[in-house]
Design a protein that fits this description.
Rossmann fold; six-stranded mixed β-sheet; binds zinc ion; globular; four-stranded antiparallel β-sheet; alpha/beta; 299 residues
Length: 299
């Protein structure tokens, strides 16, 4: 029996009674089933029986885990790589508009595309990444050496950052309080914390249910919505400043989610589902498939 990561109280509101929310298989690697539970008080959703941090390693062993690899096989992944170039510019423009300093810490820096893009635009970048494979790619491709999470946790890195960014990373983090404490210590008073997270209150999450690719169990432990992340951050001394939708995510989620279904899917229909989700998010950003949250320290 694998050791599980115990969750006895809600990280958002502290309540301890939960109800069943959804069963979600690990489509990508193990095909094991995981249970999502929901807090009865604040409606926060989380993976209730995720493996412990010690046991999670093998669940990341997939060529298809594109965040950490450079595979270009298949239509979805070719599109993903083109989309990445578009999104790098999008992220850069949003950060530039914050009009703050250029000292940036990227946590979960992966194979380093974002760091490299920001460095080319004059930012002083530091990365933290758990995957040695991703770190090696980053160093080989861009000559940037990222740090291990333990160096960050043991406070061996510099402080006084203007920006700390986590792009689709915080939903994977076990020791969330340690990380928030370090965000607070590592940001200067003018600094911004940027979290990009999937939103399980989006139309694509509702359409695809257990097939929704952004549940990504058991790698994603926390399934935030705008309400729950804002409450979570506020409790830890961070106030929400801005939200941006990530415009390509509903399309990417639709393509990956449909690929998990055991039947023929027609790409235009998949893209229509993505488009529907995108259009809903234009009317209400709280329904976006993924959201970039910009927080500021409460000083
Ligand atoms: Zn709660």
């Amino acid at each position: 029996m694998k050791e599980q990561y115990p969750i006895s109280f809600c990280p958002v509101c502290g309540h301890s009674s939960f109800k069943h929310y959804l069963d979600v298989p690990d489509w990508l690697v193990s095909k094991e089933r995981f249970e999502l539970k929901q807090c009865e008080q604040c409606h926060f959703v989380f993976t209730a029986n995720a493996p412990s941090e010690k046991e999670i390693g093998p669940y990341y062993n997939s060529e298809e885990y594109v965040e950490h690899s450079d595979t270009t096989n298949g239509l979805i992944y070719s599109i993903y790589h083109v989309a990445r170039r578009v999104m790098l510019n999008f992220k850069y423009r949003k950060i530039k508009r914050l009009n703050t300093g250029k000292k940036l810490l990227d946590i979960g820096s992966g194979s380093g595309y974002f760091m490299n893009h920001m460095k080319k635009n004059g930012y002083d970048v530091t990365g933290v990444e758990i995957s040695e494979k991703a770190n090696a790619l980053c160093e080989k491709n861009f000559g940037i050496k990222a740090h291990s999470p333990s160096e960050f946790i043991e406070e061996k890195l510099d402080k006084n950052y203007d920006i700390i960014s986590l792009w689709h990373v915080f939903e994977h983090v076990y020791s969330y309080d340690t990380y928030f404490d370090l965000f607070s210590k590592s940001l200067n008073d003018k600094g911004y914390l940027i979290l990009a997270l999937p939103n399980c209150d989006s139309p694509d999450a509702k359409i695809y249910k257990s097939y929704w690719s952004a549940y990504d169990t058991p790698r994603h432990i926390w399934h935030f919505t705008p309400k729950t992340i804002e409450k979570f951050a506020k409790k830890r001394g961070f106030n929400i400043i801005k939200k941006h939708r990530l415009p390509l995510d509903p399309f990417f989620n639709a393509m990956v989610s449909d690929s998990y279904r055991d039947r023929f899917t027609f790409l235009p229909i998949t893209l229509l589902k993505g488009l529907y989700s995108y259009l809903v998010s234009l009317l209400n950003i709280e329904k976006s498939s993924s959201i970039i949250y910009v927080f500021k320290k409460n000083i």
